[in-house]
Amino acid sequence: MNAAKPALTPIAIMALALLREDDMHPYEMIRLLRHRRDDRMVTITNGTFYHTIARLQRAGLIDEVGNDRDGNRPERTTYTLLPAGADAVQTWLRAELPRVDHPIEFRVALAEAHNLERDEVIALLRQRAAQLDADHAQHRTGLAAARAEGVPEQYLIEVERQEALLAAETRWLHQTIDRLADPGYAWGGGPKPPESAYRAQREAARS
């Protein structure tokens, strides 16, 4: 019997999403994540990543499909994504895309949003946009009220910064939703990177 499903971390989602591409061993997965600069979103250490893989296997989300040894290198175990793992990615994305209080999780969710259907992503991002619009309005109103009361600007620097960040993010998010709604914007089964470049990247990650 499989262990209870763990609460998935951003690193776990990144690992599961990689296995949607193909079966891989953890060393290759780490190399790919770093080559693609996905470690700009989440700090990736070898120890944490291997521990995450073990947890995913115990939870029945991935499984071993083979072992290989190249020369004097340590034996490497290759893993495959199970149906429960694919479902877990989609469930996590549905939970994290609309949230405004998990910034790290949102970055990973946005990077993996292509694992959901276009219309669903648009609906989830519209939920997020509604929350951000409300937060922005609240900050803008509060800032105006504080200035009207004569609060010195030096005490409003943080609020001013947050209002500016919210303004920028809400503007970007609404523009992105409009782009996604355009049928000309490739999504899901759309164009992929050149196969030769992808294979070269995979070979480099294995070495």
Tell me what the structure shows:
The structure is a single chain. The longest helix is centred in the middle third of the chain and has 31 residues, at 118-148. The chain starts with 9 loop residues before the first helix and ends with a helix. It is mainly alpha-helical and 207 residues long. Helix 1 packs across helix 4, helix 2 packs across helix 8 and helix 6 packs antiparallel against helix 7 (157-181). The protein contains 8 helices and 2 strands. The chain is 61% helix and 6% strand. It is elongated, with a radius of gyration of 21 Å. Strands 1-2 form a two-stranded antiparallel ribbon.
Distance between the termini: 36 Å
Question: Topology as H/E string?
Answer: HHHEEHHHHH
Dominant shape: elongated
User: Can you list the strand order of the major beta sheet?
Assistant: 1-2
